[in-house]
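We close this part of the discussion by returning to an individual protein. The sequence in question and its structure tokens are set out directly beneath this paragraph:
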Amino acid sequence: MPRNISTLESNPNLDVLRSFAVISVCIAHGARSAGLESGTASIGLLGVLIFFVHTSLVLMASMERLELSGFRLVFSFYLRRIFRIYPLSIICVLALVALRMPPQNWDGATFITPSPVELISNLALVQNLTASRDLLLPMWSLPYEIQMYIMLPFVFILLKRAPGLLTVSLLWLSSALIAYVLPASAAADFMGYAPCFLSGAIAFVIFKQRQTVGGLPAWSWPVTIGGFFIAFLVLNNVGASYVSANSRKWLVCLPLGLLLAHFQPVRAGWLRSASHFVAKYSYGIYLGHMFALHLAFRTLTPLPLGAKVGVFLVSTAGLAVFLYHAVESPMIGVGKRVAGSLVPTYGQVHGSAARI
């Protein structure tokens, strides 16, 4: 296995990227809760798009480490992702309903008792297929992730049989063309994000092909990510009249996928530690920060703005850490054990650990 892939999970640049993504979503929603709306939607959307690129790359590398193929790979991958994603999302949906909390904390939102279809759709993460409202605002992206998980093992298998940048580039172009010609529908909606996911697959192929790690100086990686945010803000505002919504997403995700493998790992100890912490607890931060916003900006309304921000930050971090150790980590372990017992990996058979 190429060194770049075998060490990808510990690459601090990916922690920095994931941290930027989740922090941007929190900033966008926090600013809206505080009444500052200008440009915040674009910041949050770009954070989600970065998640899509990052997740595809990391999961492709994880499948490489499993050293499985065919049905065994697909079945093991699906099992592990189900235990990774669904337990926490289900708990958050049920908690939201029990607390009678609105999906967001602005625009005069109030709690509306979900219909059976809405509740089931949110629990199953198929809101986009049933045209149901998202009971918790950040959950809009999870159905697209789940649907991406369905196709990703087949992309991986294809790239094993026909490796190379040409294959994945043709996949990217095909998905963009399909998204362009499809009439408005749930399928067209998903295909609009498919090139974003496949940008992560492009990064995976480039990581595999490179003989050495990085090339561009480490300090330029955070600067480059910041540049993507500026570019996306410009595209979404100045360029909105000239560039379609899908094209604006692709014009950011594709360059990100092409560039990811070309940076030396960040060296600053504080940045590595902070980004690793945020990346580790990012899923809990992503879903849990809305509960923290509700506490800070709805429940504790009389507090001054600075105090509200402090409550938001502390409660978001505390809730994310709690959810990770109480729900995420145990369920990840269960998923690994169940998948490992039904479909032993090469590493299990030969006495080494395979992680996903």
Notes: The two ends are 16 Å apart (CA to CA). The chain has one domain: 3-343. The first helix runs from residue 3 to 6. Residues 349-356 have pLDDT under 50 and may be disordered.
